[in-house]
Amino acid sequence: MRVAIIAESFIPIINGVSNSVLRVLEHLRREGHDAMVIAPRPPGWQPPAGDAPAGDASVTSTSEPGPGDTYAGFPIHRVPAVNLPPINSLPIGVPLPRVYKLLKQFQPDVVHLASPFVLGGAGVFAAKALKVPQVAVYQTDVPGFTEHYKLTFLLNMSWRWVRAMHNNSCLTLAPSSPTIEQLRDHGVQRVHHWGRGVDTQRFHPAKRSAELRGQWREEGQAKRSTAAPAEPRKLVGFVGRLAAEKDVANLASLNDREDVQLVIVGDGPEREELEKLMPTAVFTGALYGEDLAVAFASLDVFVHPGRFETFCQAIQEAQASGLPVVAPRAGGPVDLVEDGESGFLLDPERFAEQLPEAVGNIIADGALEQFAAAALTRVQGKTWPALCEQLMGYYQQAITA
After folding, report:
1. Are 103 and 130 in contact (CB under 8 A)?
2. How far is the C-alpha of 379 from the C-alpha of 315, rounded, in Å?
3. Is the dihedral of CA 365, 366, 367, 368 positive or negative?
4. 16 pLDDT above the threshold of 90
5. Mind listing the pLDDT tens digit for each residue in 104-140?
6. SS3 223
7. Could you tell me how far CA 116 lies from the centroid of its own chain?
8. How many CB atoms lie within 10 A of CB 279?
9. DSSP, residue by residue, 29-69
């Protein structure tokens, strides 16, 4: 099978869209298929020289393919990208006529549209012109972003664009039941479920580092004017992009708790403001590969406050690392977190207010181990090979439709 992937977001941008595309490419290579990728090149990014080895460079890798380079042996074709104010954390690929030319030259059996918006929108209509079936994967809540960034005048327009892109595709794949319901309510047709896998070998409780935990506590203590508590502080953290739509500022309601040390793993445009808002928190910057897996496992509780997650892969990585999760009762987390068992789902409008009580219930005497064990059970059997085999079935369904 020949698969053309048009990715609205791709490495070096690290998020759920780029992560899933990398896993799909690795599966296509293992199974002997052919593929190509069309993706944005972020403004100012200069890629390192050399190819990214198949099966080795993941979303957390430091070895990344560049313009005209390859991933897993497949060519990566880059188009220019621009930052779209005020959403400065997601560069938007420019939909050049080159998209049509690349597809025509490659002659794919199916086009995989990874979170289509602007570049992917061009891919939809180029594929239709070439009479090539498309599978559109809905991964970014663009209408939700317009609300969050107070661009409400664009809300109806954004839903019209979503309908146009997805209804012109053969199939739409959505990662969670709330997202499927939302799409159907807004007139998107032929919506099917496709979740996400997680690497339970990379993300594992055995990666916990006593040394790192001690280092974080010492760094946090140095930022406080009070004495260290008799019992070591529990490590409560967030892992991801520090962008406005992630609502990381909600963790500030834990900043003054004496039984908690906040740890913020990641980087982004909101970092400076968040450091001011949470002066006792430890900010590690972006971590990759084994360092990221160790950081996940070295936390006690994972908090993801973003309300616009169509899935939230970071939650699965936290659960595989043995962490209870606190997240909003909205979007993807609803399917991932068993409220009161593997963590808590909070009211998105009262998240900061409810967060201290939820964390307190998890770290109470004897409770943390039970929550952690329940979190681990949530990811059993959710492997990428199984999810990619399901995707191959959707490709074949689109081809034979």
Report:
1. yes
2. 10
3. positive
4. no
5. 999 999 999 998 888 988 999 999 999 999 999 998 7
6. coil
7. 15
8. 11
9. HHTT-EEEEEEEE-TT--PPSSPBPTTT--TT-S----TT-
- C-alpha to C-alpha distance for 161 and 289, rounded to whole angstroms: 36
Return the axis-axis angle of helices 119-129 and 155-167, rounded to nearest 10°: 30
CA-nearest of 316, 318, 301 to 361 is 301
**Taking Cα atoms as reference points, which of 26, 63, 25, 23 lies closest to residue 47?**
63
Is residue 372 a contact partner of residue 323, using CB atoms and an 8 Å limit?
yes
Strand segments, DSSP code E, in 200-320 are: 234-239, 260-265, 282-285, 301-303
Q: Say if residues 224 and 261 touch (Cβ distance below 8 Å).
A: no
| Amino acid symbol at 203 | F
- Largest Cα separation within the chain, whole Å, is 69
What gap in Å lies between CA 28 and CA 33, rounded to an integer? 5
pLDDT of residue 97: 85
CB 59 within 8 A of CB 317: no
Give per-residue pLDDT as tens, 147-159: 555 555 555 677 8
Q: 288 CB contacts (<8 Å, ≥6 apart)? A: 60, 61, 62
Supply the pLDDT for residue 401: 84
pTM of the model: 0.77
Q: What is the pairing mode between strands 110-114 and 2-7?
A: parallel
**SS3 readout for 307-364:** CCECCCHHHHHHHHCCCCEEEECCCCHHHHCCECCCEEEECHHHHHHHHHHHHHHHHC
| Cβ atoms within 10 Å of 219's Cβ, excluding its own | 16
Q: Band the pLDDT of 89: cuts 50, 70, 90.
A: low
Residue 268 to residue 313: CA distance in whole angstroms = 18
Is 401 strand, coil or helix?
coil
In contact, 6 and 120? CB cutoff 8 Å? yes
